[in-house]
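Section 5.1 Outputs to date
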Amino acid sequence: MKIALLIMLSVLLFGCTPLSNGGGTAGPKIKGKVIRITCASTAIQILDAASFSLGDTWVKGSDTIEHAAYVINKCEFPDNLTAGNEFYFRVITAAQARNDCAVCMLYDFPPSKGIYLKVVN
C-alpha cells in the first residue's frame, strides 16, 4: 500500500506540466526594428538588451548588423511595417504560428537565427 501511494505521489509531482496560455502573449514585450523585407524573408534587429540572444551578427553587404534574426512565420508579419520601422513583439512557438502564405524561393542570405513572433502594440 505504501509503495502504491509513493508511486502515485511521484507521478503527480513529476508528471505535471504547467499549462500554456495558448496565445503566446505571456512572454515579455520585445522591441525590434525591421531591417529588410523581401519576397523570401523578413529580417529584424532586436533592440532590447535582455533579448539580444534571440539574434546574431549578420553581414549584409558592407554592413554588419548586431542582434539580427529573421521572422520564421513571415505570413503573420504585418504589411504596414516596412524597413526602418520599430515595433514590439512577443516570441511564440511554432505551434502558435501560422505560415500559410506563398513566399518566393529566392535565397537572400537571411540572418542565421530565426524566431516565431507575434507583433503587439
